[in-house]
Amino acid sequence: MSEPAQSASSSLELSQRIEARWATIMFALIVMLLAIVVFTGVHWAAMPPSRVEVVDVKTLHLAGEFIESNLGTGIDPQGNVTVHMLAEQYAFHPHCIVVPEGVPVTFRATSGDVVHGFQIIGTNVNSMLVPGYVSTFIMTLNGVGERTMPCHEFCGVGHAAMWATVKVVPLATFEEMARKSRRLSCV
């Protein structure tokens, strides 16, 4: 065999070996990433993180913190402002909540049927409400006024009409309202 033909043949073999090695490395990398995804999914499904609170969706309306008389804004025994909300197709309960301006407010919300979105426009509040789990977050709202709270996860044919209102009032007004009622809403 001539030297140029032998050189071309060895170059071809070398490039094929290099390509085979890279293909093997990439295949192994893809298999490893898929194994990580599967392991993580199975692990989180079997053992959710310890900070996750669960709630029985079958008894939401019968007992516990999400019964109708406990929904809305309230002040707990430690003096903290807490909002309890329930999302169901196609409404938030209560439809309008009142919160004080400039005070940290703890939102505790869940869903009774399907996954819903919880977002307060103009803030960084953005959460998913998953049936069986309680979503908890703390937010301080500044600026008196009303903010829209739409559902941002498609939850069915009535999704576009699913929204609520967050009414931010001065602290003195909120305290006066809280003296008159255990649970506050705009109604």
Structure summary:
The protein has two helices and eleven strands. It is α+β, with helices and mostly antiparallel strands.
Structure description:
It contains 2 helices and 11 strands, in the order H-E-E-E-E-E-E-E-E-E-E-E-H. By secondary structure, the protein is of the alpha+beta class. The chain has 2 domains: 1-47; 57-180, Immunoglobulin-like. Strands 1, 2, 3, 4, 6 and 9 form a 6-stranded mixed sheet that branches. Strands 5-11-10 form a 3-stranded mixed sheet, with helices on one face. The longest helix is centred in the first third of the chain and has 44 residues, at 3-46. The N and C termini lie far apart (95 Å).
Largest sheet: 6 strands, mixed
How many separate domains make up the residues?
Answer: 2
- What is the general shape? elongated
Strands, total number: 11
CATH superfamily of the largest domain: Cupredoxins -  blue copper proteins
Instruction: Predict the CATH topology of the largest domain.
Output: Immunoglobulin-like
What is the percent of helical residues? 25-40%
Spell the H/E element sequence: HEEEEEEEEEEEH
Whole-angstrom Rg: 27 Å
CATH architecture verdict of the largest domain: Sandwich
**Residue windows where pLDDT falls under 50 for at least 5 positions:** none
Give the amount of beta strand, in percent: 25-35%
Instruction: Calculate the mean pLDDT score and round it.
Output: 88
Alpha-beta classification:
alpha+beta
Distance between the termini: 95 Å
CATH classification, class level of the largest domain: Mainly Beta
Work out the helix count. Answer: 2
